[in-house]
Amino acid sequence: MRQLKQISIFLQTTLLLFTLSNCTQKSDDTKANQNLLLALIQTAEVQRLNQYEIPINGYWEIGFYIGTTYTKSGYLIISTNVDGTGTWSSTSSYGNGASRIVEIDKANRRLFYQEGLGSYDAKKFGRIDWTEVSSSGCEKSAPKCFYYCIAVFGKNTLNEAKNDPTVTNSTNPKASGCGAFGWSIALQLNTNTNWE
Question: Model's pTM, two decimal places?
């Protein structure tokens, strides 16, 4: 339904722009109105894109800490769409998997996901919390890094995942705050061609 509404708005806008551009006698007012309309459409689209763009999109090396020692465990790709959905795909020493991002809570740095068919918890829902992205103090001199915690998993519905009372604490993410463990860390990669 939501996609149908977006298509309808797009078609109406396209028709309006086509009509405006095919007027044979364009006055200065008509041109000004057309430019204003285009500016409004662009502004609305930018606002919609900003609503769902999250700073953790991209290619990342992932790992964790045992004490103060960083241990690489694999790679992660995070990609979000303009409608608030996306993909969280990882390959690690613990297995490979892809989850569908079904909702993003950007203000609280949380995303809700549904496990892919090939995973242990196929079709189950969960929540991943993340910290602010940092551009200083990152392991291996990475340009950016962040911590994340798979806080909720194995839920039968999205509502169960959203209503789960699990609380995370990122005060000392290397050591604790994600259940009984530290948080995982993601180190930004500039390209995915150097994956081993």
Answer: 0.74
* 107-to-132, 163, 169, 178 alpha-carbon distances in Å: 11, 17, 16, 19
Angle at 77 between CA 137 and CA 58, to 5 degrees: 55
Give per-residue pLDDT as tens, 77-121.
999 988 889 999 998 877 788 999 999 999 999 999 999 887 788
Give me the count of residues in the chain.
196
Query: Pick from 144, 138, 148: which is nearest to 179 by CA?
Result: 148
**What span, in angstroms and rounded, lies between the C-alpha atoms of 79 and 76?**
10
C-alpha distances (whole Å) from 131 to each of 149, 160, 183 are 9, 23, 10
Helix (H, G, I), strand (E, B) or coil at 157: coil
Q: For residues 167 and 151, what is the distance between their CA atoms, to the nearest angstrom?
A: 8
First-residue to last-residue Cα distance in the chain: 42
State the virtual CA torsion across 191, 193, 195, 196 in degrees, nearest 10: -150
Taking a C-beta distance cutoff of 8 angstroms, is the pair 80, 104 a contact?
yes
Q: How many CA atoms lie within 13 A of 108 on its CB side?
A: 13
